[in-house]
Amino acid sequence: xxxxxxxxxxxxxxxxxxxxxxxxxxxxxxxxxxxxxxxxxxxxxxxxxxxxxxxxxxxxxxxxxxxxxxxxxxxxxxxxxxxxxxxxxxxxxxxxxxxxxxxxxxxxxxxxxxxxxxxxxxxxxxxxxxxxxxxxxxxxxxxxxxxxxxxxxxxxxxxxxxxxxxxxxxxxxxxxxxxxxxxxxxxxxxxxxxxxxxxxxxxxxxxxxxxxxxxxxxxxxxxxxxxxxxxxxxxxxxxxxxxxxxxxxxxxxxxxxxxxxxxxxxxxxxxxxxxxxxxxxxxxxxxxxxxxxxxxxxxxxxxxxxxxxxxxxxxxxxxxxxxxxxxxxxxxxxxxxxxxxxxxxxxxxxxxxxxxxxxxxxxxxxxxxxxxxxxxxxxxxxxxxxxxxxxxxxxxxxxxxxxxxxxxxxxxxxxxxxxxxxxxxxxxxxxxxxxxxxxxxxxxxxxxxxxxxxxxxxxxxxxxxxxxxxxxxxxxxxxxxxxxxxxxxxxxxxxxxxxxxxxxxxxxxxxxxxxxxxxxxxxxxxxxxxxxxxxxxxxxxxxxxxxxxxxxxxxxxxxxxxxxxxxxxxxxxxxxxxxxxxxxxxxxxxxxxxxxxxxxxxxxxxxxxxxxxxxxxxxxxxxxxxxxxxxxxxxxxxxxxxxxxxxxxxxxxxxxxxxxxxxxxxxxxxxxxxxxxxxxxxxxxxxxxxxxxxxxxxxxxxxxxxxxxxxxxxxxxxxxxxxxxxxxxxxxxxxxxxxxxxxxxxxxxxxxxxxxxxxxxxxxxxxxxxxxxxxxxxxxxxxxxxxxxxxxxxxxxxxxxxxxxxxxxxxxxxxxxxxxxxxxxxxxxxxxxxxxxxxxxxxxxxxxxxxxxxxxxxxxxxxxxxxxxxxxxxxxxxxxxxxxxxxxxxxxxxxxxxxxxxxxxxxxxxxxxxxxxxxxxxxxxxxxxxxxx
Amino acid sequence: xxxxxxxxxxxxxxxxxxxxxxxxxxxxxxxxxxxxxxxxxxxxxxxxxxxxxxxxxxxxxxxxxxxxxxxxxxxxxxxxxxxxxxxxxxxxxxxxxxxxxxxxxxxxxxxxxxxxxxxxxxxxxxxxxxxxxxxxxxxxxxxxxxxxxxxxxxxxxxxxxxxxxxxxxxxxxxxxxxxxxxxxxxxxxxxxxxxxxxxxxxxxxxxxxxxxxxxxxxxxxxxxxxxxxxxxxxxxxxxxxxxxxxxxx
Amino acid sequence: xxxxxxxxxxxxxxxxxxxxxxxxxxxxxxxxxxxxxxxxxxxxxxxxxxxxxxxxxxxxxxxxxxxxxxxxxxxxxxxxxxxxxxxxxxxxxxxxxxxxxxxxxxxxxxxxxxxxxxxxxxxxxxxxxxxxxxxxxxxxxxxxxxxxxxxxxxxxxxxxxxxxxxxxxxxxxxxxxxxxxxxxxxxxxxxxxxxxxxxxxxxxxxxxxxxxxxxxxxxxxxxxxxxxxxxxxxxxxxxxxxxxxxxxxxxxxxxxxxxxxxxxxxxxxxxxxxxxxxxxxxxxxxxx
Lengths: 933, 249, 288
Ligand SMILES: Nc1nc2c(c(=O)[nH]1)N[C@H]1C(S)=C(S)[C@@H](COP(=O)(O)OP(=O)(O)OC[C@H]3O[C@@H](n4cnc5c(=O)[nH]c(N)nc54)[C@H](O)[C@@H]3O)O[C@H]1N2
Ligand SMILES: Nc1nc2c(c(=O)[nH]1)N[C@H]1C(S)=C(S)[C@@H](COP(=O)(O)OP(=O)(O)OC[C@H]3O[C@@H](n4cnc5c(=O)[nH]c(N)nc54)[C@H](O)[C@@H]3O)O[C@H]1N2
Ligand code: SF4
Ligand code: SF4
Ligand code: SF4
Ligand code: SF4
Ligand code: SF4
Ligand SMILES: [Mo]
Known about the structure:
The complex is a heterotrimer. Chain A is an alpha/beta fold. Among the domains of chain A are: 17-55 and 566-686, no CATH class; 164-242 and 336-424, Dimethylsulfoxide Reductase, domain 2 (3-Layer(aba) Sandwich); 764-903, Barwin-like endoglucanases. Helix content of chain A is 25%, strand content 17%. Chain A is built from 26 helices and 38 strands. In chain A, helix 7 links the parallel strand 9 and strand 10 (203-207). In chain A, helix 9 runs antiparallel to helix 12 (332-339) and helix 9 packs parallel to helix 15. Chain B has a single domain (12-209), classed as Alpha-Beta Plaits, CATH 3.30.70. Chain B contains eight helices and eleven strands. Chain B has helices spanning 26-37, 89-92, 120-124, 146-149, 162-166, 183-191, 221-224, 235-248; strands spanning 12-17, 45-46, 54-55, 60-67, 74-80, 99-101, 108-110, 130-132, 139-141, 172-176, 207-209. In chain B, strands 10-1-11 form a three-stranded mixed sheet, with helices on one face. Chain B has a two-stranded antiparallel ribbon with strand order 2-3. The longest helix of chain B has 14 residues, at 235-248. By secondary structure, chain C is mostly helical. Chain A binds chain C through residues 786-791, 828-829, 856, and chain C through 202, 204, 207-210. One iron/sulfur cluster (SF4) binds at residues 82-85, 88-90, 108, 125, 127, 129-130, 141, 202 of chain B.
């Protein structure tokens, strides 16, 4: 018996080029195997701080993305009506001339008439710098409809949130509680983390109406009713507080729980911190019983601190916390039904949190010194950790719910301690250390500062002197004061309505606004094609940069085709949204591992080109362009002296250095040689307690995160919120308009609160989840991925299936206050019984993405977006309130409620949108992919 | 070559942890990528951009809903590729000898140049681990990445299957299940690793680790509840307790 | 299983062909000359045609000869040998009959035996599959042989043999349907053994929304009502009607009609044989 002789060591590839994945925003390191000059195989880079070698389905399918037939081939000029998809290919000269001819006059007369919004942009520090120098206030990325609640609540409360800002201490945590996450941005690290916990046998609790993915492997599933997490969390807090299971030492030292509040109802500062002459919040020192500034060396802030002055008691924040949350309103018995849980389960979870945090505390023998100068011999860990994402943030009570979660973590002493949640540099960074928003447009001059920021009170809002919004998206107005990421989802509807003003040119980058990233998709498509009496488009000009034939492409007048992620330079910068992990700061690049075979250009380089043509300050000095292209910008741009887009291999006084240093012409080569990234490890003594740890503060200054140490206290009681609330109460020069007064008073509570956002008119919650193997709308053009998720049913809980006499494959009408869709259904038992859901962004417009027009994505696939409106239906007051969080403007995607009725069998899901013409050639009918062999 | 070896020197295979797999399909696609570019013919796709796309994959992730006697329903993600059976029926049915089980390590392979694409081996496999490639007309199956695990052109740490290397959750383990001292054997012993369809008599080498018991916390409430004994009934009392507790710090 | 026309035609035609060869082979007074030529030509056409259709099921038909190599373990390989041997022997037996008119009976017996063996090996290809409990049963070769013998008898004009054989085959078929419907459940393979999970297991999301080879090839599902209708048709056409026709006063047209009816019946039964066969892999897709 013989068996064939196998070559067990066949050659794998000619060469490996290491760069950064861009099939999603996780930004893992990849090894691109090249054979005969072509991409042969993509695997994870084992040395990379983010993914350590693993790669998700999308990342491995990058080869199909990079070679997708939907790739745009050359600049396009619209020749048919908007939306038709009829284009003519033009030269770059013509395209850039056209763009210049539109943008130049606007800058000279009214720069705000250019609205430049970017979607899945990973170069926001660059695109915002461009917009700032152009002078338009109308710039933001997509964070406003994504997860601004999560980011903002974290930054205002503790100087950072989850994902890019922080993650659980996977190595040490013993109990991990996950709220409302299907996939997250931190895709691979979360899976790796869960894997570590599972290997150790640690406990995972998943709080989610849907038990799939991460929640499927959770040891305990809390199938909560959507929108009620805040209530559930505050009930956990109630139980823990009542039992005294809180970390008193931690609260006293590192939070504003001991800070005294002005208790005088007549004082303008009522409810704000008592401050000393230097403006520093004050505490009572438990050692001396005297008032002291919060950061005075050697003091022991008294949690129970209170003083009496002129007949008025000024008590610590801790008093407010006890008063608020010990109330029976938060008892498990009072909240369980509303949350779809049982009191027993709430208590059991609170008990487990208490047990793990306090009975199973861990100790690391690592001395460190705090900002008050005290040396600690050990680091004490509360090994409970939390993570949350859009499930709690994409509700109109999301900001306060996220804050409630932070309050819970902090009460347990589980932030920046071993086993808890850890920040990723450049975080922690408190709200007050961030810039404030700027929005004053002046022709021919740059904006005075960055567009986006963190208002500390009403005076920081972006309102003109007559109280009008300065920004087209009405960010930083009384409707949503803390809209730190802007409101991209309002741009098209506001521009269409001319409210607060009309614009001339809408420039979009990497955002599928005519489809899955808009609420009310159909209406948005109409707004983009709507004309005035003269037959001119109401939004006169649309420039768009996409790499692929997306739905949005069809709605633009001028397309500036981008390269794929393997064909361009990119910079994942510490100035922006870096790839740091808790133990090390890190940044990375992408570089052209292959040259484009089409007439396309990296959009950032195109922006540099446009800036040079437009003589934008910051890009052109004395008539001379400063940067040739984006690679040149990455290397040579300095935000502040010594601080550039990349922190590695800068020119120090004595040689190469990290952090601060002069530009280095060979910097990109060094990154490439190192695998496309650089890590900047945090010293051992600085690994935990970062906001208060002098060693960390020194490290951060060295890296250029801030110019001097910035220790701060966690803000359990939020003063910025209190300032807005105070304005609502009628105090101060800047006050909300009458119709918003009550909302501001009720919702801007300085301590986290919960309010109901679900209307009773429709019985069933409707959610979407991201499939792990698909990225928004991009996945469908990928020949491998679309075989996994080519269409999407609406999943109904067993009870609803029975009630409506439905079985798998039947069809149902799904009605919301805004419309009706008709879609296929399937049953899921592991689902909250008041909830239905589907995969996000599987449905496609016919003709898009170089798919055949009868592709299942277009015939059976569907979007829930048609049912979600950016405005709520009229209420008793006759007003149409925004379907968003009143504090941040975060789009409340997950507040959607619907009614389900059985429908007769259908050929195609409804609404059935007509086909767009495809600007790219027809795709092949068979793939046998193998390069070089 | 269609006879099965009496025994193999090693029994290389996978251990898949159903308690850890989050169903991300990473293993599915890395497998597709590696095996499209490597061993044998590329894994082809028909109508890749059309109405009824389909293609050859060697590894697929199912999901099952499990309704226990008590407690809420559960979901189990379930990756499945060739289990490299010791008594592989796919091998003995093969009329051409294209299918064989390697003596050295027990890997079950198809020698594509001998395969006539009759499909009988796929019929004989209970697990759906074989797919006939429509473009090439030959049978494809998991090779256990035989062209990786010994490949001297790869760094040593990469000499493991593509799906194992890529799995973000670490739910896939590779090793010698014939060696009772191997890490995978230890894992199987510790976690009660099981065979799929044991009654089919295929004696799979790959093992599955069952999901751990779920939703048990309500039963522990008696142990946990005492931890929540109130320190005081009234908010005032709470502040008193706070004072005393602070004194003790 | 997917009722692929190529395999349905293959098993039906080659079954008839080898069945006919069996009767021709054991005929103590075989026809000679043109009559022999006609009978053997029909038998060869049927069996060779059937084999040709079976090659249509191959991904690489040009390599079909490789299938002869694994006779020690593979029923498909054995079938190839058996079929080839039968045809060669039948040729050796038929040539003198047709051209010289001499009969060498032992060659005929060998041909007959080989024909039976061929039908047996064909049926064993299906019978051996534990993965298809409906097939994995002694009744599968019995039924294949019964069909072949009845069909062969009918084709060779042996009315008195054909009638009881048709009746027996019909009866056996009915029982096989009845019993076959219970074999998957009896096999002990179910969702629980497939997944190793205990409790009530239901397939949730399939691994892919697109189709694949497994679904097309092995996860065919026929509706109960549809199947019942087809069973009746198969029974009527395959056994009942031919018997009735044979009982009528003999006529060439009636005999031809009986043969046609029988062939149509067997084709229907074969369609059901495949279409109703539940491959256990369907469990993984929740299609069982
Ligand atoms: N594979 C893949 N990865 C991605 C993306 C992608 O498209 N594909 N997109 C990226 C982007 S832009 C983002 S913003 C992130 C988002 O990542 P996630 O935050 O994971 O976002 P979703 O997939 O929308 O999942 C929201 C989850 O919240 C749950 N949920 C909804 N309402 C509630 C509630 O009231 N309470 C609780 N507890 N849970 C609730 C839903 O059931 C769902 O599981 O993912 C990023 N990563
Ligand atoms: N119903 C519902 N709707 C939602 C959500 C939800 O949970 N439910 N989530 C919302 C959230 S959080 C988000 S972030 C949005 C996401 O929605 P979008 O930001 O619209 O994301 P994509 O669909 O990925 O579209 C991005 C566009 O970028 C293009 N692109 C891809 N690669 C490149 C490239 O290299 N260069 C250029 N220039 N373009 C490229 C793609 O072709 C695509 O047209 O969706 C939102 N919509
Ligand atoms: S998570 Fe996946 S798609 Fe996202 S960057 Fe990492 S490998 Fe790429
Ligand atoms: S799993 Fe299937 S293909 Fe793999 S060895 Fe076992 S029977 Fe053969
Ligand atoms: S398909 Fe190929 S490997 Fe499978 S049994 Fe037929 S010849 Fe053998
Ligand atoms: S071992 Fe290799 S061939 Fe087998 S499933 Fe994993 S990646 Fe695919
Ligand atoms: S890669 Fe790992 S976690 Fe993902 S589906 Fe495969 S086995 Fe499961
Ligand atoms: Mo997002």
